[in-house]
Write a structure and sequence with these properties.
By secondary structure, the chain is mainly α. It folds into two domains: 158 residues, no CATH class; 89 residues, no CATH class. It is 58% helix and 9% strand. The protein is built from eleven helices and five strands; from the N terminus they run βββαααβααααβαααα. Strand 2 and strand 3 form a beta hairpin. Helix 2 crosses helix 4, helix 9 packs across helix 11 and helix 10 packs across helix 11. The longest helix has 35 residues. It is elongated, with a radius of gyration of 24 Å. About 6% of the residues have low confidence.
Length: 258
């Protein structure tokens, strides 16, 4: 793994290099503002519901004065848990993204380029309180600016990075023009992660620059990963033909969404 000029390069065990643009403090700040607005709405809704429930019980005489104090403390705890749960659950279950990150096309990843796992997401979000000091992410922004890898304290502790995550279909043009695919078989696939689609695009764009031996070797590594996403058995198809078939499918899908 290397970082140069704001770009993170990760080499997979198969010696395929994945490249990511690191997100700066600006976009991360805008995403955080949107996320906190959404989380605040969720928290305020819960407070209103709990308040209405407490008021109804109070009118009915079912709550004592001590119970009202308990309900107030319980409401504060629920509010804090909901805000933390918003960040933790979305980043864990939504491919490293929250609503704010998806709006600004950002994503949290591990050091190997894979989506952040639950433990890493939990650690980076528990330290969010420290990054928020003294106010408005003051310490977090300072650390992001000073860090060569644009990491806040939570990222440093969890070993995570926030990277730009452009939508894969935006790159349909390169599949059509960089390397002529011609007519041929298309391979129907299940939903493919962005990294797998990127491998297809980069291979198609650069295969003409590779020697036959290197082209076959890299195609075999990539095809081994891609076959797990194909809907039907494409056994007779060679590794290179499989990649081309999936590239045609991605291109056709992107053009229909265009």
């Amino acid at each position: 793994m290397t970082v140069a000029a704001g770009r993170l390069e990760v080499e997979t065990p198969d010696h395929v290099v994945l490249r990511y643009d690191l997100a700066g403090a600006g976009n991360r700040g805008f995403a955080a503002v949107l996320d906190f607005l959404v989380a605040t709405v969720i928290a305020l809704t819960s407070i209103v519901l709990l308040g209405v429930g407490g008021a109804l019980l109070g009118v009915a005489g079912a709550l004592s004065e001590a119970s009202f104090f308990f309900l107030g403390g319980f409401t504060l705890i629920v509010t804090a848990v909901l805000i933390w749960a918003y960040f933790i659950l979305l980043e864990w279950l939504w491919n490293g993204q929250t609503i704010g990150k998806r709006a600004f096309r950002l994503r949290v990843i591990n050091e190997d380029g894979s989506p952040a796992q639950f433990t890493a997401v939990l650690i980076r979000n528990l330290l969010r309180l420290v990054d928020f000091l003294p106010a408005l992410y003051g310490l977090g922004v300072l650390v992001i600016v000073l860090s060569p890898k644009s990491q806040r304290l939570g990222d440093l502790a969890a070993g995570t990075y926030v990277v730009r995550a452009p939508r894969p279909q935006v790159d349909w043009f390169s599949l059509r023009t960089v390397t002529p695919l011609g007519a041929g078989v298309t391979a129907e696939t299940r939903r493919m992660p962005g990294e797998a689609q990127r491998l297809v695009r980069e291979f198609v764009a650069r295969e003409s620059q590779l020697t036959p031996t290197e082209r076959a070797r890299i195609a075999a590594l990539i095809a081994a990963k891609l076959r797990t996403y194909t809907v039907e058995d494409l056994g007779p198809l060679s590794d290179i033909d499989l990649i081309h078939a999936i590239a045609r499918s991605l291109r056709a899908t992107a053009e229909t969404r265009r």
